[in-house]
Design goal:
- This protein is of the alpha/beta class.
- The protein folds into 3 domains: about 120 residues, Urease, subunit C, domain 1; about 80 residues, no CATH class; about 130 residues, TIM Barrel (Alpha-Beta Barrel).
- The chain contains 13 helices and 18 strands.
- The strands form 3 sheets. Strands 1, 2, 3, 4, 5, 16, 17 and 18 form an 8-stranded mixed β-sheet that branches. An 8-stranded mixed β-sheet has the order 6-7-8-9-10-11-12-15.
- The chain starts with 10 loop residues before the first helix and ends in a 5-residue tail after the last strand.
Length: about 425
């Protein structure tokens, strides 16, 4: 939770920011910056302008006239990115095949849960459609705004797939790509027909033109009309046939304009997934829930060889049938898996303890920088917004969260939250 009292003196400074180059500018000096992309910067200075990071570095000089918030005891990192949530949504899902669905209409901007997650440092939220099978595509929101359009950052962040190890699931996937092939063949035939019609119309137009020229020489009064008819002949510009709404997402997958997030129940399902995918080349990440029976250590090397990105909870689990503890996130990361860590469940309480839970598996062996990346930049990759959020880099959104110390220590307090260049939580709230 935020500690508010120590920040009261910063209200006036935040409110008095001068306009520079058409936007507000602010320099923030902190003791440490966890950039995620370029490691840790001690004695960091971050220049925020027009809602974005304009500069970042160690002991950077600040131009005269730019206000400075000087907090050498603070640690700053990118705002948390939660890519896999249903927070604030209440729609009922299906168990069928609805890849075209997005949960935008379920989004209720005035739901207080979004303010609650923002107050706990979550500045980007991926919301997926409910349901099993292929229930649809996720959206991405900023957890603040009075209208949907103000909150919505992206639709079609990823296609959610609940995959089970049975013939029906495999057939569903294969049939979807076969329908893409069917459409490609249909479009090919439509184009060939258009090209033939165009060629025929061109020849007819040339004949009409010649006939009109002959008539003109003979003094035919309608020669000009015949010439105009020749110019207007033809099928017009090519318009491809419209694909079925349920086919479009799989066309986008194959074109790598959309990625898929595939939930698997156990390690055995991974082999069935590879069999179902076959030779299809598209982008996919895995959602591997950490249950009591989690046995993903069985496929750690396979996942690592492919550098698969895996979304899971920061949990210490027991090896099935034993009392032996396993730090599966750490094991997978050491094998080469790209790790994304999400709260233990979809509740404010789980979000409140999210970073301390990550800290526990770091203490148990997970690399610290890997852990920080897992709640920021890798999570941003899942929802397709890594070019905008997830790290402290020039040009990215100034979504910053400030701590009294190490973000992964249980005793550390969240001091302030900045969303797109404005303090929205803490006593520096603008």
């Amino acid at each position: 939770m935020l500690t508010r009292a120590p920040l009261a003196a910063l209200v006036a400074a935040a409110a008095a920011l001068p306009a520079l180059g058409g936007g507000d500018a602010l320099a923030i000096r902190v003791g440490r910056a966890e950039t995620i992309s370029d490691g840790t910067i001690e004695h960091a200075v971050i220049l925020v302008e027009n809602g974005k990071i304009a500069a970042i570095g160690q002991d950077l000089p600040v131009e005269r006239g730019i206000p400075v918030l000087d907090r050498p005891q603070w640690t700053v990192m990118p705002g948390l990115v939660h890519p896999y949530s249903r927070l604030g949504l209440d729609g009922r899902g299906t168990s069928g095949f609805e890849p075209q669905v997005v949960p935008t209409r379920e989004l209720y901007p005035l739901n207080p849960v979004y303010g609650d997650v923002l107050a706990r440092g979550v500045t980007t939220l991926g919301l997926y459609p409910a349901g099993n099978g292929v229930p649809g595509q996720a959206i991405v929101v900023r957890p603040q705004g009075d209208e949907r359009a103000e909150m919505l950052l992206a639709e079609g962040a990823f296609l959610k797939v609940e995959f089970r190890s049975d013939a029906r699931n495999k057939k569903t996937l294969r049939d979807a790509f076969e329908k893409v092939d069917d459409y490609i063949e249909k479009e090919k035939k439509a184009r060939e027909k258009w090209e033939k019609d165009t060629e025929k119309a061109k020849k007819d137009a040339e004949k009409k033109k010649k006939d009109a020229e002959k008539d003109e020489k003979k003094g035919d009064e309608k020669a000009d009309e015949k010439t105009d008819d020749a110019k207007d002949a033809g099928p017009g510009p090519y318009v491809p046939p419209e694909p079925d709404e349920k086919v479009k997402p799989f066309m986008a997958l194959r074109a790598k304009e959309l990625r898929s997030l595939v939930a698997l129940p156990n390690s055995a399902a991974y082999l069935h997934w590879l069999d179902a995918v076959g030779e299809e080349d598209f982008l996919w990440d895995l959602r591997l829930p950490l249950t009591r029976q989690a046995d993903y250590y069985e496929i750690a090397e396979r996942l690592g060889e492919k550098e698969v990105r895996v979304v899971m909870e920061p949990e210490i689990t027991l090896q099935p049938g034993t009392m032996r503890q396993r730090n599966l996130p750490a094991e997978l990361a050491r094998a080469g898996v790209r790790l994304v860590l999400i709260p233990r469940n979809d509740s404010i309480g789980a979000i409140e303890t999210w970073l301390s839970s990550v800290g526990l598996i770091v203490a148990a062996g997970l690399d610290r920088q890997t852990a920080l990346r897992a709640v920021t930049l890798e999570a941003a990759e899942v929802i397709g917004l890594a070019d905008r959020v997830g790290s402290l880099e020039i040009g990215k959104e100034a979504n910053l969260i400030f701590f009294s110390g190490d973000p992964l220590e249980p005793s550390t307090q969240l001091e302030a939250v900045m969303l797109e260049g404005k303090f929205v939580e803490g006593e520096v709230k603008q």
